[in-house]
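Why run this: before we spend reagent on co-expression, it is cheaper to look at a predicted model of the complex and decide which construct boundaries make sense. The entries below are exactly what would go into the expression plan.
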Amino acid sequence: MADNVLSIEGLHKSFGGLKVIDDVGFAVKRGSRTALIGPNGAGKTTVFNLLTGVYPVDEGTMVLDGRDITRVPAKDRVIFGMSRSFQNIRLMPHLSTVENVMLGQHARARRLGDLLYPLGLMPGNRWARAAKEALEDAGLETYPGQVVANLPYGVQKRIEVVRAMISQPKLLLLDEPAAGLNQVEAQQLLALLEKVSASGVTLLVVEHDMHFVHNLCDHVAVLNFGKKIFEGTPAQVNDDPLVREAYLGSDTSMAGQQNAAPAAGAADAP
Amino acid sequence: MSGYLESQLIILCLNVIYAYGIFLPAASGQLNLGAAGFITIGAYSSAWINASGAPMYIAIPASMLFCAAIAFTIAFPILRTRGVYMVLATFAFAEVVAGLIINLEFLGAAAGYPVESHADYLVVVPVTILVVLLCFFLMSTRLGLAMRSIHDDEAVATLFGVDVRLAKVAAFTLGAALMSLGGALYGHHYNYIETQTFNVLLSIYILLYVLLGGTQTAWGPLVGAAFFTVVPEALRQIATASGHAWIADSRFIFFGAIIVLMMVFRPEGLVTRTMVDRAATPFGGGRSGAAPAARTA
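The model came back. C-alpha cells follow.
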C-alpha cells in the first residue's frame, strides 16, 4: 500500500441509466507517471471528476496517500495532496497571472489570519514572491496587470500546471495537457512536467496524444466504455489486442484484412 | 460649507456606502437587488433602538448586527439561487420588508417614523471613508482573492480549497451590514424615515452604480456611485446656469443614453482590473498585456 500514492477500487458511477464508470480499479505508484487513456467517452475525465470530488461516487473507494478520500468534500481534497489541471483551460480570466497562481496556495492559507492578510497592499509579501518564483521556475515571466485571458494557449496551459503545483500536491492530475498545443508548446510542457516529476510528484495524465504518452509516462491504464481493459507499460500497450481494437485501432483490422484479401484493405478502412 | 454642497455630499456618501454593500456580493458573482430591504431594516432598527433610549453610536452598530443576523439567516436559501433568480429572490425580500414595516404600528406604519438623534456630515463623511478603506482592505486580502475567483469560476475555486459557501455568505452578510449602516445614517441625518423612500428604484440604482462602476476592483462602486450622483446633478446645474430649462427637463434622457453607451463601451464597468494595474505602474507595466516572453527551456 505504502508505495501507492493513489489506489482506486471498485469504482462505479452512473448518470441516470448510463453506466459511465463500471467497476474501475487501478493503483498509481508513488513517483510514477501514469497515463489514463481510452477512446472518447470512455470515462477518463469522469474518473478525474470523481477523484477531485466534482461528482460523488456511487460505489467504490479511493485512497490517496493512505487516507480514504471517498467521502471527503471537494474543497478539502486538495489538502490531502491532490491537484489538477483542466481539459479546457480554466484559469480565472479576471485575475492576473500571479493571482491565479496565488489561488493555488489557498489550501495552505485557510486560517483566518491568512484569509485577512492584505496580499494586494503588500507587493513583496511571501505569497506573491512564492507565486512569482514558481512562474519563473516554469520559464514564465510576468508583468503587473497581466490578465491571463490575453496570453497564448500554450502559456496558459503551463500556468495551469504551475497553479496546480503550488498547492504542493503529492499527486498531480493532468487532463489532456497536450491537447491543442503545437510541437514547440508540447515540448515546453513536456520539459515542465519532467521537472515536476523529478521533484517527486506523481503524475496521472489523461491524454490522447500517444506520442506524448510514450515520451512522458512509464505506466498506462486503458479505459473503454467505463471499464478498465488494460494496465501495463507503454510498450506493452501497443501490442495488446484489446487496446488495439478499442483505441489504437486500424492496424489490427488492416493486418487481418491483408492476410485475407490484401486488395480490399484500403477500401474497407473506416 | 454651503447647505447645497453639504446636502449633495451627504447623498454621495450614502450612495457610496450603499454601493459597497451591493459590491461585496457582486464581487463574488452574486446580483443583489435587495438593497432597499437592508437599508430599510438599518434605518428603522437604528431609529427604534435610538428611540428606546440608546445613544446613536450604540444604535447604529446594533442595527448593523441585527441586519447582519437577518442577512446571515436568509443567505442560505437565497444563495442557492443563481443569476436572475437571485435578483428576483433578493427583490422579493426587499418587498417583504417594506410590506412588514408598513403594517407595524409601533414603527409608524405608513405615516413614517421620526428619528431622534441627528448625524451631520461630520459623522457621515468619516464613516464613509472608513467603509471605503475597509472594502479596499477586504478586496486586497486572500478572502477578496477567493471572492473574485468565485466570480470567475466557482467549481475551480472549490477544487483549490476555497469554501465557496462560506465566502458567499460572508460577502452577502457583510454587504447587508454596510447597507444597514447606510440606512441608519440616512435616518439619523434626515431625522425622518418612511418605507416609500426605500423602494425598488433605489435598489436598481445602487445595483447600477456597482455594475457600471465595475465589480473587479474596489474602485468600481466608488467611481460608479460618484459618477451617478454627480452627473445628473451637474446636468441640472448646467441647465439652470445656461437658462435652458429643457436640459433640466430632459436630463434623464441624457442620463439613460450615458448608461446605454457605458454598457456598450465599458461592458465590464468603468473601472477594470487592468486599468487600475496600469495606472498603478505607469513605467514598470510598459509591456503588460503583451505575451510574456516564454524563455525557451
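Confidence is low (pLDDT under 50) at residues 252-270 of chain A. The CA atoms of residues 237 and 243 of chain A lie 7 Å apart. Bring this page to Monday's planning discussion.
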